[in-house]
Design brief:
The protein is an alpha+beta fold. The chain contains 14 helices and eleven strands. The chain has helices spanning 15-42, 53-74, 80-101, 106-137, 146-154, 164-168, 170-180, 189-198, 202-205, 208-225, 255-274, 290-300, 387-395, 441-446; strands at 5-8, 11-14, 304-314, 320-331, 334-338, 345-349, 356-382, 399-409, 426-428, 433-440, 451-464. It has a five-stranded mixed barrel. The protein has a two-stranded antiparallel sheet with strand order 1-2.
């Protein structure tokens, strides 16, 4: 569990960081309460010690949430311990200030605490049921669904004007209260079924998850009420007999409800650590093996432009990299990739001699193309004698690019290429023998003055199948010296 992370409010945190901040918040809050209580005990005229437990629980949650947000920024500074020290000192001072300012009257504090604990119990049960279902079904929980879930968990008390929903919509609660007269008709499975029926159109407007949380929250309220001595009218409207399970919740907000709320909070915290949050994950996409990807490229080569999303590392430096590039060609199990932004070409694959080692590659098919390869043999001539064909190809409509490859035997010395992270375009073989690999037309023109004993060249031009005119940049002209 040491390396497990948890998603909270769309951010990823290590579980131990969350638990550590929670423990720190509890210690700081209770410690501040104790110090203020001791101080006020020595000076009773200053007032009463800090109020009910629920106020401290709310403060603990706020400190924990603030700490989680702070860690996102503290870890970015060089001396992180200074940031954590400042946060800890600030949290302690603010906790002392809160404890010293909190002075509710005893009667009001006790009534408020009982009221909140009683209604919190419904929300805890609803949240536990929802998260348990999400965990068992393997679906991620959605934070926005907690809103209809909690509203529906408080919905059975709508006929009481003192309930949370009754305070929000008093005109509705008073009409229901006058009509039903606290007959507990809303606290029945039949009422839950009616709620599910009336909210069924949400299935067509949203999705099934939005719909099912409403009756789920309603039923969670009924589950809590079955633990009270007054019970529920389970078979209403057939009969008005009341049934209960244990009858342990004899007093709203009493000691039994407080203990049950504390136990349910522990269960909820455990579920929060195991349940995923967020949208449904995308269905898995079947990935081709590397060999299958190579075979697929060969089936597309010469008929379509082929692009690739790649990830991997450079063989020379080990640096990780990824990009979206065009595949110009393939030799064996290695691809020749072209970076249109830098103009660089490099080989990529799984072979040690490749410039780039591919971890993943996904092919994307582009527009249809027509490839025109032409062989040119020269003997005791200059490379310039092949240029008329290059210029002719360059004038044909729809041209995308031209590349020249081949073997050359010459008495002149060519500048060879020893690049580690790009294609070696001019390679020396034996004495006076060179290999040209995918020279652009402009690069080939730069070598046009070289006189060769023999040259076996392949000039390859690629054209779009819907030509609208020349698309390549005009090539520089070569002036043959007298």
């Amino acid at each position: 569990m040491g390396d497990r992370s948890v998603e909270i409010l769309g951010m990823s945190f290590d579980v131990w960081v969350v638990l550590g901040l929670l423990a720190f918040s509890v210690i700081v809050t209770l410690g501040a309460n104790w110090l203020v209580a001791r101080f006020r005990h020595a000076m009773p005229e200053r007032g009463r010690a800090p109020g009910p437990i629920l106020a401290s629980v709310v403060w603990i949650v706020l400190v924990t949430a603030t700490g989680l947000l702070a860690t996102r920024y503290i870890e970015r500074i060089d001396n992180a311990w200074i940031g954590y020290l400042a946060f800890g000192l600030g949290a302690f001072l603010l906790s002392l200030l809160r404890a010293s300012l909190y002075r509710p009257s005893p009667a009001h504090a006790e009534a408020l605490s009982s009221y909140l604990v009683h209604n919190l119990l419904y929300l805890l049960v609803a949240a536990i049921l929802y998260l348990a279902l999400a965990w068992l079904t393997g679906h991620p929980a959605k934070p926005l669904l907690l809103i209809p879930l909690f509203v529906s968990a408080l919905l059975p008390d709508l006929d009481t004007h003192a309930s949370p929903l009754g305070r929000l919509v008093p005109f509705v609660s008073r009409r229901l209260e006058a009509w039903l007269g606290h007959g507990q008709e809303l606290h029945t499975p039949a009422a839950a079924a009616l709620v599910a029926l009336f909210t069924a159109p949400l299935l067509f407007l949203t999705n099934a998850q939005v719909w099912y949380v409403i009756p789920l929250g309603f039923l969670s309220h009924l589950i809590v009420d079955t633990l009270a001595p007054q019970g529920l009218m389970l078979v209403w409207p057939i009969a008005r007999n009341r049934y209960f399970l244990l009858g342990i919740l004899s007093e709203p907000g009493g000691l039994a409800e407080r203990r049950l709320a504390a136990g349910l909070s522990v269960v909820l915290a455990a579920l929060l650590l195991v349940v995923d949050w967020g949208p449904e994950p995308a269905p898995p996409v079947a990935q081709l093996s590397y060999e299958q990807t190579v075979e697929r490229y060969y089936s597309l080569r010469g008929r379509n432009r082929v692009f690739a999303r790649i990830e991997g590392s450079w063989q020379a430096t080990g640096r990780r990299w990824g990009a979206y590039l065009e595949i110009l060609n393939a030799t064996g199990q290695s691809f020749l990739l072209w970076d249109s932004f830098t103009g660089e070409m490099f080989t990529a694959g799984h072979a040690p001699e490749d410039n780039f080692y591919l971890s993943t590659i996904n092919l994307v098919t582009g527009e249809a193309v027509r490839v025109k390869p032409v062989e040119v043999d020269l003997e005791n001539e200059r490379l310039a004698d092949a240029l008329p064909l290059v210029y002719q190809m360059q004038q044909e409509p729809g041209l995308l690019y031209i590349y020249v490859s081949g073997d050359v035997i010459t008495a002149e010395r060519l500048h060879t290429d020893y690049a580690q992270t790009s294609l070696r375009k001019v390679q020396a073989q034996d004495t006076g023998q060179y290999s040209l690999r995918h020279l652009t037309a402009a690069e080939f023109i730069e070598l046009a003055a070289i006189e060769v004993e023999r040259a076996d060249l392949i000039i390859t031009a690629t054209y779009a199948t819907s030509p609208t005119g020349p698309t390549a940049t005009p090539l520089p002209t070569f002036a043959v010296l007298p």
